[in-house]
Records
---
Amino acid sequence: MAQVMVNFRIDEDVKKSMELACREMGLSMTTAFTIFATKVGREKRIPFEITAGSHDPVPFQRRRSRAEAQPVYEGEQRVLVEKQQRLEQLCFEIRRSLTAVHIAIPSSITGLSMEHIRMLCGNELKDKAAEISNACKSLFSSRNTDLLQKKDLSILDQYMDSLSSIAEELLDIEHTLVPAMKSCSGTAPASFVPYEQRLTAVSQSFDNLAPVMEQFLNSTACSGSAQTVRTRIRQASALIETPYVLTALENLEALVLRHCNNLDEQTSSRLESDYLQVLELTLKELAQAEREGRDTTGQAALSLRVVNVLSQVISDSGQLQQEWSRRNLEAEVAALERLAAMRGDISGSIGPEK
């Protein structure tokens, strides 16, 4: 069959977008147009609906039945589905922004900064985004449903928040860089260097996601009393800047996750009503000293001693359970006095400390 040449004009951005889509499908533009033309010739119609109304060509009844067919999720499963949907949406937004920037780079613009931008959007960042997308799909596969319910989902929220920041940064870059490139020709001016630096920072942000995901995969679900205790510890430590105190608090959180839900009711109640209150007050005073620029050595030392007490209360729960049965009111008062002494409210010695 004889072949003929067909020439027509289309927008440059549309052409680049179609070329990219065709490459991902393993097709050339010529093949794609040939498929379109063949189908039109055979069926005597445009092989898709053209409308000025809603973009969804599915009739109402079909859309309603399809929605009715969706499973109804409850409880933890519903939470997992919502997180999966958010992750998928973030991955889509990131890929879309990267593609929009990449296809908008005119070949007429030269220069090292522009070449680096082209490489980042077309290869490096695109590959990292694809890795995250594939990892998320694997994470939420049906075989991992039971496993995910045993993990600390708050860490996954941190991961998604970081991914959301990346998506917002790329969207901002897209909205400012694309117009700048369209209005430029020749060698890329110095004004493109900040975009290069921002995209390089995005690449580093992608790399920072891996440790967070690893932390999530190694985590254990936190619920009940452990959830309450950990939340209070995190709230109390939010304004603290002293590094070694923050490290001690992180170790305390790990103990909470492992042991707190196994404490007997009386120990758990004492932990939340007395020991945690002392920790909160001590950390509050440390934060105030930091803000005022005063010497924090004494307050930091007191904070560490309180953390030590809480750590022993949580980790030595078996021994404490035996002690609770023989404690009397005098022992209770003495324990509270020791805690108060740490804050300087009264004189006394601290215990327990090893």
---
Amino acid sequence: MLLTKYIAENCIVPELAADNKADAIKELTHLLFEKKKLDDVATALDQIMARETVDSTGIGNGIAVPHARVSGLKNLMCAVGRHRGGLDFMSVDRRPVHLIFLICYPPTQQTSYLNFVATAAKLLRNEENVGAILRAKAEKEMFQVLEGLSEKFVAPEEGYAKQVKSAPELLKTRDAHADLILLARLQLCQEMYDTAKTGKKQLKQRIDNIRALVDPRLLKHYDRLMKARPPALVPIEGDTCQGCFMKLPSQFAQKVRQDTDHIHTCNNCSRFIYVL
């Protein structure tokens, strides 16, 4: 995913004024509002802060990804803030956070959000990439660095075709992980199709190719969910289903984490679930 497709240059803050996590989140949320990316800053801020109480969004290596699903948005939006001194986000590695990617996305683009975070995490796992962003002098240069780095993760069309062509080999040794990958790819392509202004024919072909590879039983349940209450595939965060936001029984949540040989569904909303 090209990160800068969802990050405007004027939504980058090279030097955050905040000196703590809460104020940094407020600063970036208000920036999205000021730049007309959000209509209701209060609701978005409440949801982001509520998410922070469930589990830290500090993913390690000096990066944090506070986020919230916001009704009324048409597309995923992200504001980026840099704090050279570092802020305490109670990150998984206990290191201070220097780069914050604050993400707001519509309920229908859960997979786009996950793909965005996955791209950012992979890109910023490299210390040299993080250093390049920290050394950038202003908004424009930070934007250019992010664009250059994330372009490396945008696969050409023929690369996708080769992946689809090789997928039947995957199905011969089908497992839950392979099925989840197919479902996630299907859901992402559907989200892209629903919001695309051009290239819909190619996206439709992608969707048809993937659907041909999905187990018919899974596909039937997926279609039922997408019609009734999308998204069909959601993560578990802090033992909470991110589809219905109901806390799962601890024993069941632990089973989902440990049992990777089966695909699980939420016992409340019936969505496909997985652990980040």
